[in-house]
Each structure stands twice: as C-alpha cells, then as structure tokens.
Amino acid sequence: MATPSDKPPGSEEFALPPDVRRRRLWQYFRPYLKWFLAGSVFLVLTNLATLSIPQYLGDAVQLLRETVGAPGDFDTSAVRSEVITASIIIIALAIGAAVARIFSRITIFNAGRYIEFDVRNALYDHLAKLSPAFYGATPTGDLTSRTTNDVTYVRLLYALPFLHIVNTLVAYSIALTRMVGVDWRLTLACILPYPFLLFGLRRVMYALFTQTKVVQAKLSDLSTHIQENLSGIDVVKSYVLEQRECEHYGEENETYFQENLKLAKIRALMNALIILIASTGTLVVLIVGSRFVIDGSMNLGEFVEFNGYIVALVPPTIALGWVFAIYHRGIAAFDRVSELLEHEPQLQDPDDPGSLPEPSGQHVGEIVFDDVSFSYDGDDAALKDVSLTIPAGSTAAIVGKTGSGKSTLVRLIARMYDPDEGEIRIDGVPVDRIPLRDLRCEIGFVPQEPFLFSMTVGQNMRFGLDSLAYDSTLDKALPDEPLLGDESFEGALTQRDRIQEAIDIAALRGDIDGFREGLETLVGERGVTLSGGQKQRVTIARALLVNPRILILDDALASVDTHTERRILHQLDTIMQGRTSIMLTHRFNALTEVDKIFVLDDGRIVEQGTHGELIEQNGVYAQMYQRQKLREQYDQ
Amino acid sequence: MSDTDSTTESDASNGSTDRKDKGGAAIGSGFQERKLGKFADTALVRRLWKYMRPYRWLFVVCLLLLPAVSAVSLVQPWMLQIAIDDYLIPGEFDGLWFIMVVYAGTVVGHAFLTYWQQYLMKYAGNLALRDLRQDIFDHVQQLASSFFKKTPVGRLMTRMTTDTENLEEALSSGLVTMAGDLLTVFAIVVILMVVNWQLALASFIVVPFLIGFTAVLRYFLRKAYRTVRTKIARLYAHLQESITGMDVIQLFVREKVSRDEYSDINAEYRDANIRAIRWDAILYAVIEAAGSITIGAILWYGSGQALEGIVTLGVLVAFIEYMQKFFKPIRNLAEKYNLLQNAMASSERIFELLDTDEIIESPADPEPLPQRPYRIEFRDVHFSYTDDETVLDGLNFEIEPCERVALVGHTGAGKSTVINLLTRLYDIDDGQILINGRDIRNFDIHQLRSQFAVVLQDVFLFRGTILENLTLGDDSVPFDRVREAAEMVYADELINSLPGGYEFELAERGSNLSSGEKQLLAFARALILDPEVLVLDEATANVDTDTEALIQKAIERLLAHQTSLVVAHRLSTIQSADRILVLDDGQLVEQGSHDELMELGGHYARLVQLQYATTASTGGEDGFIEPLDHDD
Predict the structure, then answer these.
(1) Which of A108, B50, B99, B457 is most buried, taking the most CB atoms under 10 A from its CB?
(2) Does A319 touch chain B (CB under 8 A)?
(3) What is the ipTM of this complex?
(4) pLDDT digits (tens, 9 = 90+) for A356-380
C-alpha cells in the first residue's frame, strides 16, 4: 500500500507492478464474467454458422459441376431443387449468424460499458477523498485527461480485445478443423504465409501507434505556440515581431507536416499490408489448389469451399493487429487511471473517533490553536507557532496583509490540511479525532473565491442542505429552526421557508426577483452570469443554511458594497447567537463590534484584542486602520 | 466482410466524439450540438480549391490512380473465373501459370497502388492544409488588438487546431476515397450487368433492402449517438466542475450526494451507449449477413442458369467474389458522408476567421518618419475599448525630446491605454496623437512601432535561448552589444549564473525564471533595440528584495538616455522623472515635478501620503500604490 502522501501523480511514465495490474484488471472484469462467457458462446455460434456456409456452397458447386459436365440426358430438376435447398440453408445460416453476432456484440460491448461505468464511479469516489493539497499540486489538465480519455481507452481495453481474441480463436479452430478435413496439404500451404504477414502487421501497427503519439505531440507544440502567441499578441505587435512569429510558426508547421507525412506512409503501408493479407490466401488456394483439382486429388467444390474458409479468416487476422495497438494504449491508460486510484488520501479519519459534544443550551464553537505550525510545501512556513483561543459563541476577526496566513489558519480549522506541529481543538476535541465529515458538517465555510456550480441558484443555496437530507451516513439532522433565532418560534420550518429567509439575510431578494426564473435560474453561461458580489452572497446563504457551529467568512464580502456588508454582518450577529463566527477581512470598519481581533503577520499572531484596544496599542493594526481611512478619503 | 474495420471505426468514432465535446464550449455551460455544414457548399469548395490548386497535379494523379486501384482489384474474380472454366473443369494445366501470375500481379499491384494512392492523397492534402494553417496564422497576426480583446483565446485556438484537423479528412482522404468507393460500386454493377444482367439483378436483390434497412438503422443510430454526446458532455461538465470545486464539495460534505448525481448521469451515459451498441450491432450484423445472403441468392438463381448452360460455374463463382467486394464501399460511403459534413462546418468557421478584416492598417502611401528627436503630443484624445465605457476623455499632454515622463493615477485612470494608443495597438476615437506635429496614423505602422521599445508588465518571453530572446531572433546583432546591454541593466550576472549562460533554454513564456529575472531580461532587450522612445509599464509583481534593488538601479540606467514614458509604480522611478503626469478618469489632472506636486497638495500628494502609510505598516516592501493598482 502506498504511504499517505499528497505528492501529485508523477508526470513520467508510470507502470503498475504486474501482479497489482493483474489483480486490478480482474477486479473490474470479475462482475461481468458471465456476460463475457455468454458473449463467447454467441461468438462460437456465429462462427459455427458462418463457417458452415462454404461447405454448402462447395457441395452445391460440386453438384453443379458433376451435373453440367455429365454426359447424356440427365434430369436436372432434382439437382436444381437440391441446390435451392443449399441456398436456403445458406441464407438461413447467414441470418442465424447475424442474430448470434448481434447478441455477441451486445453482451460484450455492454459489459465494456458497465466496466467503464464502474471505473468512472470508482474514480469519482476516490477523487472525492483526496485532499486540497493533492488538487493544489496536480494540474487540472492531467486529472481531466486521466478521468476522461484514459477511461475510454480502459473500456476499449476490455471489450474489443476480448471480442477479437475470442473470435479469432474460435474462427481459426473451426476453420482449420474444416480445412484439414478437406485437405491438410493445402491447409498447411495457406497458413504458411500468415505468421509472416501477421508479424509484419503487428510491427506496422506498433509504428502507427508510436507515430500517432509523435504527431499528437507536434500538434500540441503547434497549439502551445498559438496559445503563447495569442496571449502575448500585444507584445508581438509592439515589437513588430509578426514576421518572426510567422516564420517561427512556419517552421513548426513544417515539422508537423513532415511528421504527418510519416504517419501517412505508415498508414498507407498498413492498408497495403491488409490487402496482402486479404488476398494472399486466395492466391495460394489458386496456385496450390488448382494443381490438386487438375490432378484429381481434390474436386472443384472443395476448391471453392476452401477458398470460402480462407476469405472468412481474413477479418479475424486483421483484427489481431488492431488488438495489439489497442491493448498497448489501454494498458498505459489503465496504469494512469490506477495510479490515481492507488493514491492514498492524506487526510484520514481517526482510528478512535471522538465526537463533538452536543450543544445543550450553552455556547458552542470554541476554537483553540495550540502552538500550530504549518507549511504548504514543507519549506516556507505559512503559520508559525500560532496559539489562540476563540471563545465559544464569540465573533472573531483575523486581519493581516495578503500572504500573512489568514486563509491558511481558517483552512486548518476545517481540516483541509493537517498542521505540521501543534494541535487544534474544537470544543475541547482535537480536530483530527473527529471524523472528517462530521467535523465539516459543523462548519459553514464561505471561501474567498465564491465558487458556484452550474446548477440553479436554488440548488447552489441548498448545496449543503442536500448533503444532510440525502446522505444517510451523516449523523447531523436537517436543521428545521428559523435562521434568525426567534424565541417564540415553535415547531419546524420547511427548507423552502428557510431558504426564503436566507435570501433576505444575504440581501439577495432583489437579485433573485430580477431573474426571470427566480431560484430556478441556472448559474453559468447557459443561465445568468452572476456578479462577484452576487456570488458571494449566494455562498453566504449556502453556508448559513446548514446551521453550522462555526461560520467562517474568508474575505467573503469583498465584492459586496459597504452598506450591504454592514446589513449582512449585523444580522449574522443574531443568527450566530451562541455559536462562533470568524471573519477575515480587509475592511476595518466592519470590525468595531467584533469580540476579538487577531492580527497576523508573516504567519505569526502579532497583536490581538478588540478594535478599541488595538487602536490604543497603536501597533500594526492601528497603522493599517489609518491607512484605510486615508484611502477612503482619497476615493472620495 | 471486414469485421475489424467496422468495429474499430465505430469505436474510434465514438471515442473521437468524446474528445471533441471536451474541447468545446466552457465546462459546465452545457454544450451545443455541432452544427453540420451543408454537404456541398460551392462557395466553400471554391475557397478550398484555392489551397488545392498549387498541388492540383498531385490531386489529379491521385484521381487517376483510383480507377487503376479499382481495376486491379476487380480483375481478380475474372481471373478466378477463367481458371475455373478454362483450366480446372477441363483439367487443363498448360497456360494456368499465366493466370496465376496475373492474379499474383494483381494482388501485389493492388497493394502497391493502394499504398501510393493513399500516400499521395495524404501528401497533397497535407500540403494544402499546411498552407491553410500558415495563412490562418499569418492572418491572425494582422488582426487588431481590439479583435483579441473581444475574442476568447480558446475559440481562436479551436479554429486554428481542431477545425483545421477536421478539414484534413475532407482534403486528404474523404472526397477522393468517396470517389473511389463510388467508382468501385459502379464498376461492379457495370461488369455484372454486362456479363449477365439477369444474374446481376439476382445478385443485387438484397441491395434495396440493405439500403432501406441501413437508412432506418442509421437514423436510430444517429439519434442514439446524439444522446450519447449530450450525456457525455453533461458527465464531463459535472466531473470537471467537481474537480474544480472539490474543496467546496468536501467542505459541505456533499461527496456522497454529488457522487450519486454523477453516478446517475454516468448511468444515463452508459444506457445511451447501450442503445447505440444495439443499433450498431444490428447494422453491423446486417451488412455482414448481406454478403452471405447474396451468396445464397446467386446460387439459387444462378444454378438454374448454370444447369441450362447460360452461365459457367466460373462465372457463378466470380459473381460471388464480386459481390463480396461490393458491400464494404457502400458502408464506407455512409460513414464518409458524415465526416465530410463535419469538415464543411469547420471550413465555414475557418473562412469566417479568414474573412475577419479588423486590421489597423498602414496608410496606402505612408509618410516617412520625421527627423529625430521626437516630440510626442496627445491632443484631446478620446478613446474607449467598448462603446459604453470611456477610458480617455479628452487627454492632452506632450513629451519633449529626451524628457523622462512618469504616468501615475489609480486603476482605470487609463495609464496603460496611453501606451496602447501610442504604439497604435488601438486607434483613437477622436483627437490626435502627434509625433513632431505629424499624426501617427500617417506613418507606416511597423516603422512607427519600431521607434518604441515597450516593456510591459507581463514580460513576453518565448521558448528559445536567452540570446534569441534578447535579440528577438535577429542574428545580425553582435554579441558584444547584447552583453553590453545586459551588463548595463544588471542582467549579465544573472544570465551567467544560469546553466549555459546566454544559451540557457527558456521554457514556454519564460516560466523557468522568476518574474524579477524576466523583467531584467526585458530591460536588456529594450536596450538592445536602441529605440528612440522607451515605454515602460512598471510591473507590480512581488520580487525579492535583492532583485528589487537591481531592478530599481536598472530602471535608473535604462531611462537615463532617451525619451521615456513610464507607467510608474515605484516611488524611486517617479521621483527621478522630469515630469509627472497624474491621470484621473481619463483626463490629465495634475502635472509637474515631485516637489511641485507635493506642494500643490492635490491628487498626487494624497497618493504619496497613502504610500507612506503603507510603507510604515508593511515594511515598505510593497510597490508604490500597489494595493490600488494592478492593470488598467
């Protein structure tokens, strides 16, 4: 088992150990074993039917040969009806083969699709377990290609090779048996060239496979160049570099062209080889077989029958070549997919889980940092020996300039990362002893970058509620009390009403009334494009609705105007009554009513206290506050 | 007949739709069904012909090879017929060798001609495509900055890559292969009809059924694939968004719910594919069966004729052989048709791009540039990037020869715009920009731009060596001059510390250097150009203290000698300017030296005051006015 690490999957070629690969391949194959077996049976039936046709054809031809060549007055009607019977049998066999073929393809390809379905789900499940550190270190493009194209290749790895290998085996065994039954010498002569042709085909297919990769790499060079050029187009123009850029592109274009030519050569060669494979058998039958027919050791019917077998073997032979290329590509893709699946999530649930104490009237949400240090890359510490206490039920603020570690601090509370040193406790329980998902149920996080999904506005707001409603593995009950704690309120509130309440609190009423479809309006290019402020307010509603023990606002109102900000913050006070909220902000005038302010600088807490205390101290906070006052004056 | 071809083709085409969808519109915004082009749009074909014309003889050779390829392959059944009728049945051996040699010859010839036909076809097509690709790139280089401002890079990329690739099918195989397939089908019909039209009709008995059946199945198959495309687009949109927003999913413990959603779409996608597999399997099996059923039909009807002595057994066998060669081209025709439709749609989009003529042009008869030194004047300049947002609103100022001018003001004041207008990346809406009293629109645009050395915030470095980046690929620049310039701006030491020194290979966009290092290189590059006017848009990016000190000294030296215009963020740069222009809301609000403006106590004074407060609280590492300003 791999050690837990969030090192990104390597960009270099990764190969699974053969036994692990075998085990994993089998793991996905196993559930559909029956389907593949059924498919194999259908393949046998198909080939039995198809390969019976040459025999009936041969017999009919031989019968005609004997009749037409026969001297004297011969009653041809008996022969005619016999041949017609053979024709009917051939047609029936053709239809039977078609039916069996339909079923063979359906069972095997469906099984492939089911495997693909399983692999995709497994990938998604696994991705959901990987931590932010993993996503930070892995390029999205890489993840995308592993989860999309590679999975497609994995599907092809199962269904196509299975179908073709089984089909080839079956077809060859049946055809060879029958061919040997007709004439073993001719069989030998016909089979002789095939190993060579097949060998040649395999090599060409491999070359095709390799050259395709080269061409794709060149194409991506070309794309990179275009991208580079387009993003620097103003500089290109300012420096009058158009000519140079065109020439440079011309060179790459030429290389791409040359590599494409090589690919064209290989492809043409492959097609020529396929033609040779398709016709060589018949040629051998003609050269060797006609000798046997003339010297009487073989009759014309057998000659035609034999040719029928040889022609029927052509497609499975060519298929083998394809299978080779598909297999190579599929295994490489499978390894890349497996590498993701083998990647151990960094954040693990505790072996001896503890649980947060139930809120029973008293204030909850106490947060304690005990000498916490953390760095993203093991090098530059983002937090250094941070110790702080945010009392249960209070409102705290964390300020500091960009890069001082504010966001890191709150991310540690939600256990998006584990600290390198020290301990973080919520209501007395160390965070790494609380099951991860139970912990996060209690945290309403409003991130700095308001990320909304392209679903409706309403669905975005209900995002966390849906977890509580539909995920039976979560203990937390769906909250049903009103957001603004009304003492006199009794009973339960529907989620619809709570959402309406959240809309008002997040000052979204006007915006949503403005959308043609209200809450049902799609977010994103197909629906409305929300402004930064609108997005932030939706994310606030999203966080409030889950009724969290701790609310974290990571600079969450930066794009909201000051008036609205004040209104929202004012209500948050009431909503979070008895629970804790932490806000990170650059706007200081929101901080006058905060219980405690922590000033971070370069990963350390340099000052803490209320607004008034900090102003009095006349330290970093006071200066930052002064500066903001100045800017406000300037802006006016 | 050919089992494999069709399997891999159907699977491959399936795979390729996946890939296309991924490259389409922005993730999560749903997707749009690709518009299919008209099959034969004469205007488009004419334009494509322009690119094929230089290589028309190659195309002609390919076309001529087609009948040859068909011919050699269609000679084979005939040889078989002769062998059976004239040698095998009478038991005659003499002369059979000739038939064998001819047959062997056709086998080799077929392979050989196919090789050359296909290779030359690709050759010709790729030649045309290479030219087209170059034309698109060259054309795009001509387009004005305003075009790039409103066109997403992704869309342009698609035109220049995916769409051109689609066209390859049409240019280098599609059309000609279709012609070849048609020719083969036609030739078989003619041969069979001439030899024995009654037997020929019997042989073709399944064809109408096949065509009808195929049409119906294709209809269902197309519908099924359309669903597949919709589903995969949704699936990938969900996946992509989940990956991007995974932290939100995890914070709201929605992993399981999101996974169920994903699994549902995944199941829909699977089921859509299973429907497609069903139609595909039926279609495939039907075409396969057609060949065998035809054997039965020929035997049924032909046996009567054979018994009456109307046809020989050899002819009967030859008919069977011909009909086995008949069905594959028919199947190919249908598939190629779809490919071509796709290619036509792509070419339409490509030509649309080539027709875009948003170009800032040089005058037909440009004036020579005036005598140096230059005096630059902005006279009542109005400008906006879009119709509704005015950026410059009657801007007036002038820069005297050899003067050092600094532009300051906060975000949106129009500072960077001034640079864009001076180098004519955009044309002004109203007013005039003058050099020595002459409107810059009178000069050749490239000559005009080469008077300026522009160092932008975002330093543009390309893949290549440092030397190539410094000389911009101009080999005629002596190395001494490069080195001298590099020393001047303190870049020489940095370069020599890199492995390979001046031959150090830069990654794409210079990503293997720090932003401070990139700036030093850009300064050296500007010096090597030895421009008449130096234009600098100071970067605000964070650099370490040592590099920052180097940059400050380098700027000092850089600006020492010629006329310069700096969009300034550093106090040191601003203070050493001869004159400071303070921009606000697209107008000049104050100008003068640092001291004069401080004394005035207006806009500028407040800016500086704010900066002192900043320096006090943060240790002074930030650039001047950094918190307010990034880019216009």
Answers:
(1) A108
(2) yes
(3) 0.87
(4) 877 666 788 899 999 999 988 777 7
For residue A546, give Cα distances in angstroms to A443, A481, A577: 8, 11, 15
Largest Cα–Cα distance in chain B?
121
Top CATH class of A18-342 equals mainly alpha
Instruction: Give the pLDDT band (50/70/90) at residue B615.
Output: very low
- Inform me whether the pLDDT recorded for A210 exceeds 60: yes
Q: Report the distance separating Cα B103 and Cα B98, nearest Å.
A: 9
Q: Provide the chain B residues 437-496 that lie in CB contact (below 8 A) with chain A.
A: 446, 449-450, 452-454, 456, 458, 460, 462-463, 472-473
> Domain locations in chain A?
18-342, 367-635
* Alpha-carbon gap, residue A373 to A379, rounded angstroms: 12
pLDDT at position A488 is: 65
Alpha helix positions (H), B445-570: 445-449, 466-471, 479-488, 491-497, 515-529, 545-558
- Residue A429: beta bridge partners? A426
Q: Mean pLDDT for chain B?
A: 82
List of chain B residues whose C-beta atoms are within 8 Å of the C-beta of residue A156: 11, 15
- Domains of chain B: residue spans and CATH: 1-32+197-310 (1.20.1560.10), 35-195+335-359 (1.20.1560.10), 376-618 (3.40.50.300)
Residue pair A116/A154 in contact (Cβ under 8 Å)? The answer is yes
Cα A597 vs. chain centroid, distance in angstroms? 42
- Provide the 10 A C-beta neighbour count for residue A561: 11
For A230, which of B11, B156, B320 is closest by C-beta distance?
B156
> Mean of the pLDDT values across residues B112-117?
93
> Which one of B121, B169, B210, B257 makes the best mutation probe of the A interface by having the most chain A beta carbons within 10 Å?
B257
Phi-psi region of A371 (alpha: psi -120 to 50; beta: other; left: phi over 0): left
Q: Is 70 exceeded by the pLDDT of residue B34?
A: no
- Each residue's pLDDT tens digit, A21-76: 899 999 999 999 999 999 999 999 999 999 999 999 999 999 888 887 666 556 77
Q: What is the mean pLDDT of residues A310-318?
A: 86
CATH architecture of A367-635: 3-Layer(aba) Sandwich (3.40)
Q: How many CB pairs under 8 A join A and B?
A: 431
| Chain B hits for A95, Cβ within 8 Å | 289, 293
Model confidence at B37: pLDDT above 80: no
Given a contact cutoff of 8 angstroms between Cβ atoms, the answer to whether A376 and A382 are in contact is yes
Pairing type for strands B464-465 and B430-435 reads: unpaired
| Whole-number percent of chain B with pLDDT over 90 | 26
Which chain B residue is nearest to residue A133, measuring alpha carbons? B247
A459 touches B at CB < 8 Å? no
